[in-house]
Amino acid sequence: MTTQQAADTRLDTLAPPRRALLLAVENRRGEATLALAELARLVAAAGMVPAATLTQVRERPHPATYVGKGKLREVKGFLVAEDLDVVVCNHELSPRQVVALSDQLERQVMDRSEVILEICARH
Q1: Which helix (H) or strand (E) holds 114?
Q2: E runs forming strands in the chain
Q3: pLDDT in tens, 44-91
Q4: pTM of the prediction?
């Protein structure tokens, strides 16, 4: 480990953990509950705090923004009100969805796969 890597590691441990909003789309009420519980454990293992959860009931994720326009406004307001740092979506996101969500929400956006990769990188 180089001196710079050691310094970066120390800084990482001093920074407060990022607070995450878990976001899911479900086609029937209650279906996402188990998946979100697992996602919360993954987020915690990645060094973040799973601070809140929001879901939207719709047949399938919106192709451009994952959630609909109204839910997107709600999520943005919630992020600001609760001072959350990152949005973690329960489904795999397309690059288009990541860019659209990041631009609209002005926060880092991750999907389940990216959280798992972050866990692996930490170990």
Answers
A1: helix 112-122
A2: 19-26, 49-57, 86-89, 108-111
A3: 999 999 999 999 988 889 999 999 999 999 999 999 999 999 999 999
A4: 0.84
